[in-house]
Amino acid sequence: MSQLPPAIFLMGPTAAGKTDLAIELTKVLPCELISVDSALVYRGMDIGTAKPSKELLAQFPHRLIDILDPAQSYSAAEFRTDALAAMADITARGKIPLLVGGTMLYYKALLEGLADMPAADPQVRAEIEEEAARLGWQALHDQLAVIDPESAARIHPNDPQRLSRALEVYRVSGLSMTAHRQRQSAQSTEAAASGHGQLPYTVANLAIAPANRQVLHERIAQRFTQMLEQGFIDEVVALRSRSDLHTGLPSIRAVGYRQVWDHLDGKLTSAEMQERGIIATRQLAKRQFTWLRSWADLHWLDSLDCDNLPRALKYLGTVSILS
After folding, report:
1. Does residue 17 fall inside a structural domain?
2. What is the pTM of this model?
3. Rounded Cα gap, residues 172 and 222, in angstroms
């Protein structure tokens, strides 16, 4: 039997009920919660991210929530560093880290590690900035599409930070960001085959979602409507009042925020904003399902079942998490 300490991953698409189940688990297990969500890290972005209430967070603290200002960026590598530190602290006190959220890239980075990308090169970065000022970011995105089509498909032309970094990696190393990741993935596969994984924990992988996809679509639409009723537009108005926030930032590109921002810019009517916000959230859920379908050793729970807590506990017992 493995001597590695236990950890629990609780994954699933948006609006599936992950937080509710995580809270139920912490009531009966010696767990402490770590958020795995690229939007919940930002302060002042509460309604549009469906952030747990301050009252709930006071009673059931989540690490890695409200740790950044929206003007800052947060990478998967930074998440991995922060999550490993939080997990080590929780384990040292005899508790079980329970990681809950839907940012699947973060889970993958934590489980497998990340490709060793070249260090930042100020001179190359300055050259890229100069080109962008002269030619426009769209022209640089066109360059990226030639040298690294996969990254270009993932990075929006209005995301100068990530676009600049992808070009910088190629110019410094001669390898695209995708090539670096593929090399890391191959190394991770070899490590897993030899029994030397990247994460020093015995991980139980849980996922929760409605078995009926239409139910999830209805939940997503209902939740977006509720967000608007709770003051989502006012929340974005407050963000827009800051001179340092713009649509090129990862925080403002978060699902829902970009659509409300465009509405306030006059680009979308209220009805169009709501429709596109719901569609964007459904697309996010679809991407999350795509990640989850390829996840190894995953135990699924149906959001609509009334006995998910005992089902989860039974599963955790079978994988030696509770021994």
Report:
1. yes
2. 0.81
3. 47
> What letter would DSSP give residue 52?
P
Q: Is 213 helix (H, G, I), strand (E, B) or coil?
A: helix
For the segment 158-195, what is each residue's pLDDT rounded down to a tens digit?
A: 888 889 999 999 999 999 999 987 887 676 555 555 44
Question: Do 216 and 308 reside in the same domain of the chain?
Answer: yes
What distance in Å separates the CA atoms of residue 197 and residue 211, rounded to the nearest whole number?
Answer: 31
**Which DSSP string do the residues of 115-169 spell out, in sequence order?**
--PPPP-HHHHHHHHHHHHHH-HHHHHHHHHHH-HHHHHHS-TT-HHHHHHHHHH
**Angstrom distance (rounded) from CA 29 to CA 231:** 35
Q: For residue range 88-112, what is the model confidence (pLDDT) as tens digits?
A: 999 999 999 999 999 999 999 999 8
Cα separation values, 66 from 72, 109, 133, 233, 312, Å: 12, 21, 33, 20, 28
> In the β-sheet with 96-100, what is the strand arrangement from edge to edge?
62-63, 31-35, 96-100, 6-11, 202-209, 298-302
* Contact status, residue 222 vs residue 24, Cβ threshold 8 Å: no
Q: Classify residue 323: in a domain, yes or no.
A: no
Range of the domain at 160: 122-183
Q: Which residues contact 116 (CB under 8 A, 6 or more apart)?
A: 180, 184
C-beta of residue 185 within 8 angstroms of C-beta of residue 111: no
**61 in helix, strand or coil?**
coil
The token pair at 277 is 């916000």
CB count in 10 Å sphere of residue 41:
24
What would you measure as the largest C-alpha separation in the chain, in angstroms? 62
Exposed (0-12), middle (13-18) or buried (19+): which is 322, by Cβ within 10 Å?
middle
**Two structure tokens written together for 214:** 């239409």
The Cα–Cα gap between 197 and 190 comes to 9
Count structural domains, the chain. Answer: 2
Contact, 83 vs 77, CB < 8 A?
Answer: no
